[in-house]
Amino acid sequence: MNISQITTTKELLKDSKNIAVIPHKNPDGDAMGSTLALVAYLNAKGHKAVVVAPNEYPHFLKWLPGHDDVLFYTSNTTNARDAIKTADLVFTLDFNHFSRVGDLEEALDNVKAPFIMIDHHQQPADYAAVTYSDTTMSSTCEMVYHFIKALGDEQLITADMASCLYTGIMTDTGSFRFSSTTATTHEVIAALIKKGANNDQIHQNIYDTNSESRLQLLGVALNNLVVLREYRTAFITMTQKELDDHNFQKGDTEGFVNYCLSLEGIIFAVIFIEHKADSIIKMSLRSKGEFSVNEFARAHYNGGGHTNAAGGRSEIALAETIANFKELLPSYKDQLSS
Ligand code: 5GP
Ligand code: MN
Question: Ligand 1, from 121, 142, 295: best to mutate by most atoms within 8 Å of Cβ?
Answer without folding.
Answer: 121
